[in-house]
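User: Here's a chain of 155 residues. Predict its fold as tokens.
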Amino acid sequence: MGIKSFQGARAKTDSKKSYDAPILVTDYMTRKLVTFSPEQSILEVMEAFAKYKISGGPVMDTNGFLVGIISEADCMKQISESRYFNQPILDKSVERFMTKNVETIPHDMSIFDAAGVFDRHNRRRLPVMKDGILVGQISRKDIVVAALKLSGQNW
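Assistant: Prediction complete.
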């Protein structure tokens, strides 16, 4: 007669994985944003980038709705253009240089899905929306920090 192995009753498993640590974009996004208006000069934007040590930010209309995003790369266009035409950096508006078709992500997206969005769209930051309203911004660095905090957890 052979030896039988008995493991006892097995724990029930749910089809959805539960995490002990927070994994949503809203848990890691920046809430206090430096925002810009379409009418602002590109020179003011560059000064704000230097002052606040940021590399970009959302552009909001007078009603508080997201209409674009301005980044250092957009400012590079202005700098390059001013050099090409041998002119100083003028008070050209943000609207001329901002990215208008902005990819956004919902506040309740997981950081894993957000990492996929960053990978597909090659962006450094993404505005975070809730019910059509800008509630924050998340960067690639925020996703990396979140992954480090979760490294002790089971993914």
